Structure formats: C-alpha cells, structure tokens
Amino acid sequence: MGRPANATIDLDALRHNYRVAQQLSGNGQAIAVVKADAYGHGAIACATALADIASGFAVACIEEALELRAAGIRQPVLLLEGFYDAVELNNIDEYQLDIVIHHQYQVDALLSYTFKNPIRVWLKMDSGMGRVGFAPEVYRSVWEQVNSHQSVRDIVLMTHFACADEVENAHARHQLETFNEHTMGLPGDRSLCNSAALVALSEARGQWNRPGLLLYGVSPFPESCNVLPELKPVMELSSAIISIKEVPAGSSVGYGSQWIASRPTRLGVVAMGYADGYPRHAANGTPVLINGHKVPLVGRVSMDMLTVDLTGVTDVKIGDRSVLWGKGLSINEVAEGANTIPYQLLCNLNRVPVHYNEELERALSNSDSLAV
Ligand SMILES: *Cc1c(COP(=O)(O)O)cnc(C)c1O
Question: pTM for the full model?
C-alpha cells in the first residue's frame, strides 16, 4: 500500500460546478480555465471530463494548449497570454487556438503572419488591473489594426478584474465603466469575468466568462463569505495518522521546538508535509479533519509529516484517515491559516499520487485513441 497520502479528484463534482458556472453565465458561455494543470487537478483529466459540456478551455501557454489538443480536446482553447514568441503562430494556426493579444509586439507579429485558418483574437484592455493589456485610450485604434488582418475572424473584447473578490471594493465597478466606455460601439463578444466577478458582479457577465477556481469547488471569496453553498469541492487531500502518543505538559513538538504543550497532550502525527504541497506556514490551530473532528495543527509542518493535538478525541487510532482539505474542511480555512490563497495551495500540490473517480479513469484509459 505504501504511504497513505493521496489526492482524490471527483470529476462529477467538477461537472456539477461547471454547470453552476454555466448557469451564472446566463445566455453567455463559461470557458473552463484549466491552466497550471487545472489548478493542480490534472488538465487532461479535467478537460476530458468536461469535454461534452464545456464551451471551451483557457490555458496559460502553448505547451498547455498542445497537451489538450494531443489528448483529443477539440473545443476552442484560449491562450490567456497569447504567444510569447512569434514562432508559436505556426502551432496556433495549425491547432486553431484562440489567442489573447495584450501588447503591440503581438499585434505587429500577427499582422505580418499569413494564416492558413481563420483566427479568433481576444483583445485585452488594461482597465485597471495594471498588469497586461492596452490602455483604454489606444484600445480602439489597436482594434482597428487587428481587425485589418484578413484572417482575423472575430475579436472578443476582453479585460480582467483586480479586486473582484472584494465584494465591497468599488475598483471592479470602475474597471467595468472604463471598459464599457472605451468599447462602446465596437462589435464583438465581451469577456470580463473570472470566478469572483461571475458571482459578485452580475453586470459584468458577458458572452464569454472565464471561471477557474469555482470549477474546482472553491469559493473565490474568504471563508466568512459563503456565497456559493452549491459548489462541491473537487479535490480531497488526505493521509493517515501514523503515530499517537501522550506527552506531558512542557513538551516541545517539531522543528524549532516552536510549540510547547501547555497541558498533558495526546499528539497525533499525520503523513503529510510541505513536500506534498501542504503549506509550511500553516499556523498553530489550522484545522485538520480526522474522523469527523476538526483538530488543530500544532508545531511546525515538516517535509513529510505534520502534528495535531488529539487531546479529548478518544475515537482516533493509528491508520485513521485525515483530511487536509476537501469535503468537510474547506481549503479556504487552510489558506487562511497559512496566510495565503487557495489558488496557491492547489497549484503547489506535489508528490502525492492523484486518483480520479472511476468514470474518469476509464475515460482516460481510452483517450489514446482520441489523440490528434
Ligand atoms: C486565471 C485567469 C482566470 C480565472 O480566474 P479565477 O479567479 O480562477 O476564476 C480568468 N481570466 C484570466 C485572464 C486568468 O488569467
């Protein structure tokens, strides 16, 4: 059997969450964001599981896109940063990928390239994210340039929010106004929403929405803000108790002897550490779910193990399953304990074997025959 640490991925939950995103999108479409190996869930597995219901997929780079095409994904695939180098245009053309254009060097490369197939461009405005995209003032003239290329089939008007997860923050509304003002009268579909905006900023919903995190059943809002009770967590990170012992008051636990028992303590050790992606910076008190009890993490997280306080919990024994996040323990709670965001925890998953529910494993074993 070996080490009990595992990540299990529930593809039915993924499909359920996609349908939630599709409902939130109203008459628009939800393009499933599966960049960074689907936020640690496995891009091929997730895209394959969504292939018959998703309107398209979005990834960060050509490598991720080609992986999806090789796995037989035929829906639109969008490169969220477009191309980094003009040589990518050969593959973009051949595999008919959608591209974001966010900078003049990309426009220049596009205009001097002869495509075999029509291409859809997503033209990005920097409406206040302050990262990539064209300034609102030049957006219209760039649109004209891109539109002059005879292979450009259509141009999706696009922007990205900086603060959509802060529901009270007015910045997202300002961005929306800026975007609307500077795209007024331009033809084409619109795409603004990430997960948080899709939920919290209904006026921003467009023909194409770009949910990522919420597909994986994780709220883009802090734990206190439970706006999406219908989401189902897709990943469960679990392991087992490998040691239980009673230690007297005054005993120190773990590296740096940073935690000291203030009373006689029943100490449990779970086979899970930062080499698996569990955050080393998780504070004392960060919850771990064992036999339905939320028990507090104590002491520093090590590479392969972490320690919990089982005092007062009588029905726990060696080998009992321990859930680090998943059903019954929101990853947002762990992120809060580690002073980070659930995105980072999911993407940092490492070393643990990843298992999929059966239906998914079957689909994947057939996927060779779908390769392009
Ligand atoms: C990653 C990304 C998204 C998805 O964001 P979530 O917060 O995970 O929903 C949407 N749009 C762009 C441009 C992105 O880079």
Answer: 0.95
